[in-house]
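Hi R.,

Here's the chain you asked about this morning:
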Amino acid sequence: MEQPPIVVRAIIEIMGTPKEFVKKALMDHIDKIKQDGLDVQFEKFAEPEPRDNFFTQFVELQIAFKSLQQLLDFCIDSMPSTVEIMSPEKLQLDMTVFEEFLNDFQGRLHHTDMMLKGLQAQKKVLDANALNVFYNFIKFACRTKPHGIDELSKMLGIGTNELSPFVENMVKKGELKKEGQVYVANG
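And the predicted structure, written out as tokens:
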């Protein structure tokens, strides 16, 4: 028995800057979906709208999928914000097909989890390295000549409120000493 197509209405959103990039990126993504052989029956693009310092845009799609696997691939690759199954109302699955679907889904989740953990480890190393560069820059600047918090703030491009606890921590660790309103590197 052949399975009827699974007709889905989905919304895909994108955020970025500038506005033209957002429009092109979303259009290119939809073109790729079509090139991959998905039966896009309907598409309606919203206009990009400003949000904070970015632009967001979404597209509403209606797509007919040949199989549950094809729907899963679309959901993982395109990460729609919403998925509404229009038809069929019921779906009968062979347990073997369902097991394959679940195992593929689990495999993709594990792969995504491994990538995320790898990125978190890389971020931790990068954060530590950036922190060391930051410390070294402050120590070098204060070794060259004494600097007040306002001067360091301007040099680093960090607000005095954010920078003060950081510099005070360096004083506590003995890497800097405070002489009046300025900081001097120890050693």
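Residues 95-144 form the longest helix (50 residues).

Let me know if you need anything else.
M.
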